[in-house]
Design a protein that fits this description.
about 260 residues, mainly beta, four-stranded antiparallel sheet, 2 helices, 15 strands, about 10% helix, about 25% strand
Length: about 260
């Protein structure tokens, strides 16, 4: 596309007509980003949708993707349905994910390696798809050189194996919480109180290399206190190999019986 220096047009310029070249040039500049993969009905409306041309940076290559026409999207048989249009983050290829018919339908999940473009509402007896039934849900993460292609959660120790195509990972860890202290048994003239355990610490980091096959250790919560008056136990440390760690929370204090009042600093 041709380039243009983005400019500000005033109302007086518009009235006189002198701003029209500036406005036209500004639209050309914005269309490179704003119109990328924009979804809309076909002309005339049909059982397909179209998306405009777009571009993004993937695996070190700038991909220029032409306008695309989807495969025919059949109408539902008994109840409404929400379908989803997605594009592949490596090829830009358009695909339609067909939803499930329901009284209150939801769109299909977005699979790893794809970017959402639009939701498409399909009603029983509705043959043609028009713009009123298309909801734009484009995001531009891929245009910056990548995107979220998978999320893995761990509640027990395991080995981390990245999703195919992963170049960078964002890791978040939480250590195990400490257990609370134990109160002693008291007589009618005594009091006892104990503190709760501390929360596990939080850590996060972005890693560009060295994460494949890392051993994950999930810190356990501190074991409960075994008898009256004893303190609790610290929580376990959560580790992403030797790269990141989040220590567990501290143990809560126990308490022996005391005559009132009982004051803690």
């Amino acid at each position: 596309m041709s380039v243009h220096t983005f400019g500000q047009a005033t109302f007086s310029d518009v009235t006189s007509g002198g701003a029209l070249p500036t406005i036209a040039g500004n639209i050309d500049v914005m269309s490179r980003v704003v119109a990328a993969f924009a979804p809309h009905q076909t002309r005339p409306p049909s059982t397909r949708i179209e998306i405009d041309a777009g571009s993004f940076f993937s695996d070190g290559l700038l991909l220029e993707v032409p306008c695309q026409l989807s495969d025919p999207i059949p109408p539902p048989k008994t109840l409404s349905r929400v379908d989803r249009a997605v594009v592949n983050i490596k090829t830009g290829r358009l695909t339609i994910l067909v939803g499930i018919e329901a009284a209150n339908p939801s769109p299909p999940d977005i699979p790893s390696g794809w970017i959402p473009v639009a939701q498409i509402l399909r009603r029983v007896g509705q043959l043609a798809i028009d713009d009123l039934h298309i909801t734009d849900e484009r995001c531009f993460i891929a245009s910056a050189g990548g995107g979220l292609i998978g999320v893995q959660s761990f509640t027990r120790s395991a080995t981390y194996l990245p999703t195919s195509g992963t170049k960078r990972i964002y890791v978040r860890l939480v250590g195990g919480g400490g257990s609370g202290g134990n109160c002693s048994a008291t007589s009618g003239s005594e009091v006892s109180c104990a503190s709760g355990g501390g929360a596990g610490s939080y850590a996060e980091a972005v890693l560009d290399a060295g994460f494949n096959g890392v051993e994950i250790e999930v810190g356990k919560g501190g074991a409960s206190s075994s008898s009256n008056g004893l303190s609790g136990n610290a929580g376990g440390t959560t580790r992403f190999g030797d790269l990141i760690l989040a220590p567990g929370g501290t143990a809560g204090n126990g308490s022996a019986p005391y005559p009132p009042p009982l004051l803690w600093d």
